[in-house]
Amino acid sequence: MQTIFDCVDARLPEHRQLLEDIVNINSYSADKADVDRVGAYIRAFAQKQGFGVETVPFEKAGNGLLITWNTDAPLPPVVFTGHMDTVFPVGTFEPPLFREENGRYYGPGVTDMKGGLAIGLLTMCALKDAGFRDRPIKFILIGDEELSEGLSGEAGKDFIRENARGSAAAITLEAHSPGKVTVGRKGSIRYKVYVKGHATHAGAHYAQGISAIKEAAHKILAIEAASDPQQITYNCGMITGGTSPNTVPGQATFTLYNRYWQLAQRQEIRDHVEGIIAKSYIPGSTATFDIVGERLPMDATPGNYALAAHIDQVSRQYGFDGVTPVKQSGGSDASYTTMAGVPSVCSMGPVGGQIHSPDEFMLADSLAQQAKRLAAVVALLPADFGA
Q1: Do 19 and 137 reside in the same domain of the chain?
Q2: Boundary (domain end) residue, out of 252, 270, 295
Q3: What's the pTM value of the predicted model, to 2 decimals?
Q4: What is the DSSP string of 142-183?
């Protein structure tokens, strides 16, 4: 294993430069051209290493990338997944976007998750240099994960599922919390609800008015009454409506966001929410809705726990901190590798903090450390794992 670790160290400078370069390309999810600039950089870098690269075009989202190596190896592949987009619009950070200070890297998406992209590519290069030939390695990169594939849609999710299917294991390189590895994540459905009433003067014709805001309030209270913090939660985070203080509001709009643990709960949520939207609490009011975003949950399967146990055993064997399997509320694309029937874990990328804020940082030494751990996990995966 020392040979692989030495290969990580030898390759570290160029991958540290890779990280700096892609952080310096702002790649807000909705800016397809900028996300594609990151993709083009990574494509050229991967091809220089001798890896295969397939670009999968999307009309609105940044194009997907499938990076492959060792495709003729006899055992089922190991899959890494990551995303090239960030939550930061242009202008959030002053240029240069990347900076290093006191053992930390700073910049938009440096931990979530451009650091994970650098770790995945560093791991692949180290395994290649060390002569690992047991399994193919695939690295699936998506361009709109921060929008729950809201721009690429089902095609984006299918891109992940189809390329993961049949693999022995899948590891998503989102930010790592020391001592933990994620085996389950919540799913979510985001609704935008449009309520119509009848606008009238709030003084002279109050009785003839139908308040859309009041109807929306009834619906919100009824929907949120079913929240269970341990299972399914419903939250109305935004509401607008009306035209003036002295007018009975004829229209209102609210956005509803829910989270849940198991795929089997998805239909229960839809029945509950959509049934209440269809019901009129105030006669004469109507309502329609759009589902404007959805991420399916990462079910905590036995295979996911088995992969976490393997990571823990290898970590302890080679001097890394052990990991405990946990379930976390935030979503990731590990949901779709799990749905493909592949033992999956998440949160094996860089160590950092202040994610989604202008102070986002990554611990510089986690680039090499996590690549070494990941390489050991892949190299020592049992031949029959996932079978």
Answers
A1: yes
A2: 295
A3: 0.89
A4: ES-GGGTTTTTHHHHHHHHHHHHTT-SEEEE-SPPPTTEEEE
